[in-house]
Amino acid sequence: MNIATIGTGSIVDAVLAAIGRLEDVTCIAMYSRKKETAQPLASKYGVGTVYTDLNSLFADPNIDLIYIASPNSLHYEQSYQALQHGKHVVCEKPFTSTKQEAEKLIALAKEKNLFLFEAISNIHLPNMKIVQEQLHKLGSIKMIQCNYSQYSRKYNDLLAGETPNVFNPNFSGGALMDINIYNLHLVMNLFGSPDSIAYTANQHTNGIDTSGVLVLKYPEFIAECVGAKDTTGMNFVLIQGEKGYLQIVGGANGCKEILLQLGQEPAETLNAQTEANWLFYEWQAFRDIAASADYNRCYELLDHSQSVMNVLVQARQKAGIVFAADHQ
């Protein structure tokens, strides 16, 4: 499978490192508005072609799949164009800006019989399977707490009067879409859609959320998801049941290690991940799904992404966070 990338940020660097460890996946092209921006990354990973024109990238017959890691607000348009040109697509999280955009992309991918994936790494991790397998030992779940807080260097730019993309409503930024989304994907991957939600956020004067608390109400339990780009915190996931608790050490992003505590028994440490670069696992999943033409699994993942996007939109509405994409 020959892939091309759109974007030159650190996430693209990490993805190229991950696929370098996979058989049958090769990056042959990159897109950047300026060739000199992409050239160092292209040289590092031996990528032969750098495009500065998107249409030329989409028209390249040698490209099977396009990985999109552009600003959030461009995800829909670029994914749509790639699908229209007959390319499979892996689009970075957040999948789109609105639920309508997600619906249109999914419909187009199905119409053209193409694979479409949201690049949300944690739901593909081996340790997430461990969590799924161990949940029943906790008894009736009553409370879930998630915290993923990471101070952004771009926050300093925001405080200095600039408006970086990640804190810009016009680019569909904010803490919910950029960082709390990991917590949301994890909880909904385990338990499905909540009955109701509430989102309370710390907001900049431009209306964007720099941090916030998302509360998901399920019939038998409550899940609290904290995401912050304006502070650093202790990142963790804690799932509490009547018979014990399960802790995901390091938080929802990497799921580095699992601690299982049942009653008065000694805590058990569980870990099935051997790859330091956890993006390896999601790309391994994408490769295997495509290689086996497993459209059913692809559509299951798309249903999940659509459900998450529906909650993200509800959460923004609760907090009064408006994107430019909401008016399109």
From TrEMBL:
Please provide an example of a Pfam family that matches this protein in its UniProt record.
GFO_IDH_MocA
List residues of the Gfo/Idh/MocA-like oxidoreductase N-terminal domain: 1-117
Q: What's the superkingdom here?
A: Bacteria
Q: Which residues form the GFO/IDH/MocA-like oxidoreductase domain?
A: 137-246
Protein name, UniProt field: Gfo/Idh/MocA family oxidoreductase
Q: Which organism is it from?
A: Saccharibacillus endophyticus
